[in-house]
Design a protein that fits this description.
By secondary structure, the protein is an alpha+beta fold. The protein has helices at about 30-35, 60-65, 70-95, and strands at about 1-5, 5-10, 20-25, 45, 50-55. The chain has a single domain (about 1-95), classed as Sandwich (Jelly Rolls), CATH 2.60.120.
Length: about 110
């Protein structure tokens, strides 16, 4: 969770300087879907100078969810909001036209 400051989320740090996919601020919860599923993180987070970030490991988080049903409902709401936001982002991208030119290959 971003307690103070901002965090830039990037898709692929291996490709060099990649524009931020999104920049989030205080109160943002990072990696929630991956924590819930146990999957690897799909984005890299880069905190701004002076940012304060808190972390909870997956086991402790899942234990807290089992003990607190209200927290479970809040997590469902956050995941639903994330999904809704991504849906609208992809709609906007689709209406802007193709990202990759016809005949181009994706990098490996």
């Amino acid at each position: 969770m971003v307690e103070e400051g901002s965090v830039s989320l990037r898709l692929s740090p291996q490709a060099g300087l990649v524009p931020a996919f999104e920049t989030v601020g205080t109160g943002a919860v990072l990696g929630l879907a991956e924590t819930m599923t146990g999957a690897e993180h799909k984005l890299t987070a880069e905190a701004s100078e002076g940012a304060r970030i808190s972390h909870i490991d997956r086991t402790s988080f899942m234990d807290r969810l089992q003990q607190n049903h209200q927290l479970c409902l809040q997590i469902v709401q956050l995941l639903s909001e994330d999904l809704h936001s991504l849906y609208h982002r992809f709609l906007a991208m689709a209406s802007a036209g193709p990202i990759i030119k016809s005949g181009s290959q994706l990098p490996h």
